[in-house]
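Fill in residues.
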């Protein structure tokens, strides 16, 4: 599942933003009710507006809260389930909240706990307090300050523990458009993702036992909506690329319509399974047989005999080969996605 993040402090065009996110495959919203002391914003009205948009688009709404924040909107942990009436479907809680309060909440609403702080003793105590464990999930933090994001080693170890205890796991990747104030340095869970594009970061989190990936920053670039649409609706990786002018239109159309990686996944190449049967009869002359950097789109020419017509994408830099024409290149923003294209993965390319 994919989610967006919208923050009550700077909420604009909420109905349109949520609708667009829903149309592009996102099914959940993360927000926060941590209210600055000096704030004069009517947070309850903004929360109602966000909740209404979530309900209209059948999206879950997870609210990060504290006891003080609840008090500012005339609620407490004892009656926090009342917030469900305005569209909030889950509460993420962190420090300063006791076992009994968490257990009580879990009987009324889905509770998301800070994944990093959950250990076996904590889970045992929740069970002892009669918490509804099926309503409890693990939710990693995002880290605005550079160099403070989680290490991959810790993340893997913690997720292994959480998954072993039957908990679903959520985490963040940075956005690809407007970064959130005050540091504007992205909002990732893993430090390694801070200055990367969210596309490969999302794919990596799914390989690391994460169930729900949220874009931490509050905006997405519409130019890249096709990536999210195809990932969610079609389980297809839609990658941005460029194509040489000399490429025949039937080959370009094949790449746009999509293909899939062969089931016998090669070490160095993504081999498009249906390309050779489609283009083996074409008289493909040797042309542009140059060095192949990672992400090069190639087609085997007639010097390769029965392999002629096979389209590949290089995972790693490779030498020039007189039997292989270089016909395009995957966009730098999507290069890291190639590592996550496994056997049988559906792929389509889009060209600007």
């Amino acid at each position: 599942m994919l989610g967006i993040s919208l923050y009550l402090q700077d909420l604009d065009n909420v109905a349109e933003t949520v609708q667009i996110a829903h149309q592009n495959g996102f099914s959940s919203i993360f927000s926060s009710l941590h209210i600055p002391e000096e704030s004069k914003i009517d947070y309850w009205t903004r929360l109602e507006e966000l909740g209404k948009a979530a309900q209209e688009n059948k999206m879950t709404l997870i609210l990060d809260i504290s006891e003080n924040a609840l008090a500012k909107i005339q609620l407490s942990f004892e009656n926090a389930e009342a917030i469900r009436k305005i569209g909030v479907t889950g509460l993420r809680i962190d420090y300063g909240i006791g076992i009994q309060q968490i257990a009580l909440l879990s009987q009324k609403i889905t509770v998301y706990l800070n994944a990093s702080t959950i250990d076996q003793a904590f889970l045992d105590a929740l069970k002892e307090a009669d918490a509804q464990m099926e309503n409890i999930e693990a939710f990693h933090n995002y880290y605005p300050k550079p160099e403070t994001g989680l290490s991959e080693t810790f993340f893997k170890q913690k997720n292994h523990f959480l998954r072993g205890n039957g908990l679903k796991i959520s985490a963040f990747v940075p956005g690809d458009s407007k970064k959130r104030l005050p540091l504007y340095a992205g909002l990732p869970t893993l430090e390694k993702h801070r200055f990367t594009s969210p596309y490969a970061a999302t794919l990596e989190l799914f390989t690391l036992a994460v169930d729900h990936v949220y874009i931490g920053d509050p905006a997405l670039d519409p130019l890249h909506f096709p990536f999210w649409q195809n990932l969610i609706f079609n389980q297809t990786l839609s990658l941005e690329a460029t194509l040489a002018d000399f490429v025949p239109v039937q080959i370009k159309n094949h790449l746009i319509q999509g293909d899939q990686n062969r089931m016998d996944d090669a070490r160095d190449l993504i081999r498009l399974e249906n390309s050779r049967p489609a283009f083996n009869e074409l008289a493909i002359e040797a042309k542009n047989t140059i060095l192949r950097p990672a992400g090069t789109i190639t087609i085997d020419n007639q010097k390769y005999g029965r392999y002629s017509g096979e389209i590949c994408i290089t995972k790693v830099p490779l030498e020039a080969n007189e039997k292989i024409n270089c016909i395009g290149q995957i966009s730098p923003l999507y290069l890291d996605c190639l590592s996550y294209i496994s056997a049988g993965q559906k792929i389509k390319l889009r060209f600007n």
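The chain has a mean pLDDT of 94.
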